């Protein structure tokens, strides 16, 4: 994610910018008798996110959306593997439920609260078994507010399911945590005069009367919040660049000449992907692209294979594309172990903005880091945020992005270009399709460099003051 509003504005290109499958889940040790899966995956920032006892292998989401009424009807088929013998298990869903079946049999279900769907199969599910779960549901997602979030983005002409850290429960039942990735196949039925864009590659579009059903399928597993769809009237372009299929779309409701500029920007995605591959290693997915919506989310988001953007202008627009493309590696391919680790994703993507500017004739990334550090030296509130554990309410705060981004550049200087490149590529290659934590990244940095880096990471990530301008802290 890249918020459009930054604490200290600027442009990286010429001025200072302030700019898999699940592992064993919490409480899932084997037991002699079937027992319930826990109601959360074990992330202290969001205790109800995800669910224990299950590993979702795939989602087959089939929805119909009524623009006039703002009503969504859905049928989602999940393939779920039991981690231990299960008497019941939970899914995360905010819409009203109509019916649940497990392994082809009707299942009892309850709603302990509006976020949790608790399912009791007709028979216990044994450890290691993979069962099919079918949930039917319907409701008005635009009316749903949960824990201060009202994430549905729509009006009578366009809808885009995009948000972070939560989005899936507004439109399909999920094990809603980045730790549990799964394959996602989405079919969306809307009026035939509208188009649908989603993750991965377009499979089919079938017109039936005044309605049309469009199917998108992603080849690689993803975290539930990265699954998205958009429906509306779009200008579309697509092709293949160096063997990688790309598909971009821009809302036709955006007036000219802004629409043409947005399309030109979306078409640059493949070139940015190609450059990023040279820095981080092979692109981890089988398709790429982007979508510009006419709606106003206030941020861009790294939906897997196809980030979504608001209308943007100026030099910062390309920097935002660089940021979201970098997230395809940091955040999408390698997810966070827990939401406290978000500084890795946002710090790396912010650093890649600076690295891109440097590589394309702009400011040197080291100058950006040192200048931003100096500009913020007297901002005590900025340094008071420990970015490796900022708290749930601050995971998208400015320090997470900027302090995290400066930390990456400072580490580049501290351990040297060769070691830094090895660190990034090793992190991404070893954890491709999985996840990682900040502690694991710190350990890998020490192993790759052969240096003791505890003091460095304390200064950049945890100390409630700006790092001293020393060589040990990555200053030239």
TrEMBL record:
Keyword S-adenosyl-L-methionine on entry: no
Gene Ontology molecular functions: alanyl aminopeptidase activity; metallopeptidase activity; zinc ion binding
Segments for region (Disordered): 27-49
Cofactor requirements of the protein: Zn(2+)
Signal sequence, start to end: 1-26
UniProt domain Peptidase M1 membrane alanine aminopeptidase: residue ranges: 317-460
Sorted UniProt keywords: Hydrolase, Metal-binding, Metalloprotease, Protease, Signal, Zinc
Top-level EC class as recorded in UniProt: hydrolase
Family annotation (InterPro entries): Aminopeptidase_N-like_N_sf, Peptidase_M1, Peptidase_M1_aminopeptidases, Peptidase_M1_dom, Peptidase_M4/M1_CTD_sf
Family: Belongs to the peptidase M1 family.
Record-given protein name: Aminopeptidase N
Lineage: Bacteria, Bacillati, Actinomycetota, Actinomycetes, Propionibacteriales
